[in-house]
Amino acid sequence: MDTVHYLDDGTIQKWDGECHFGWVLEGRAIQDVWIRPKRPAPPTMYGTTLRIFDPAVGGWRIIWSDPLNQDYSRQIGRAEGKDIVQIGDDSRGLQTRWRFTEITANSFHWIGEERSAESAPWQVTYEHFARRINF
């Protein structure tokens, strides 16, 4: 994947990376691992997401953890048209919205946004452009 990070001062950082998705817990959950930059370089992000469908909320309960940066988030994810939208809060107390868009069998565009309060506008902080590579 290619990653773009938008900093508050207007600076843009770019990295390559990798993500791995798979069914876990006997098909009851999806787990993914996100690594930036690509190995073998030392990672600046190394985290995992666990997604478990909850029929009571009609969506996925999502837990993100990046122990390298002590970054954590809890969200609820649902389909919105052709997209998947996850909304919740992170370990800094910010509201987060992660959107999977332009989803195909071989790629997706992930947009990470945050805001400090319900009335504040969403700010794009990250974009990931992922594509499937068969091993």
Query: Spans with pLDDT under 50 lasting ≥5 residues?
Result: none
**How would you characterize the largest beta sheet?**
11 strands, antiparallel
Strand content: over 45%
Strand runs, count: 11
CATH superfamily: Calycin beta-barrel core domain
Specify the helix fraction band. under 10%
Terminal-residue CA separation = 15 Å
Please explain how this structure is put together.
- With 135 residues, this protein is mainly β.
- The chain has a single domain, classed as Lipocalin.
- It contains no helices and 11 strands.
- A hairpin with a 5-residue loop joins strand 9 and strand 10.
- It is globular and about 40 Å long.
List the helices and strands and how they pair.
Layout: E1 2-6, E2 12-16, E3 18-24, E4 29-36, E5 45-54, E6 59-66, E7 71-80, E8 83-90, E9 95-101, E10 107-115, E11 123-131
Antiparallel strand pairs: 1-2, 1-11, 3-4, 4-5, 5-6, 6-7, 7-8, 8-9, 9-10, 10-11
Short description:
By secondary structure, this protein is mostly beta strands. It has a single domain, classed as Beta Barrel (Lipocalin), CATH 2.40.128.20.
